[in-house]
Amino acid sequence: MSDRPAVETLGYEKARDELVEVVRALEVGGLGLDESVALWERGEALAKRCDAQLAGARTRIEEKLAEAERDPDA
User: Fold this and answer.
1) Which of 15, 31, 61, 71 is in Cβ range 3.0-4.6 Å of 49 for a Cys bridge?
2) Which positions ≥6 away from 34 have C-beta within 8 Å?
């Protein structure tokens, strides 16, 4: 797992795609305990990254909508 980029550097799509891979690997099983725990921890970090990026996008959209309501001619 150390050859993977830091979660904080990933864009939404890459984080989401890697999270899908993590879930699949955990569902298939066959991993040792340490590897499973490390993979689960990576998945948790990826999920949090995705949530944060979605929240940021939501905030930006809400701000733009509020601007449009204040100044409909803009």
Assistant:
1) 15
2) none
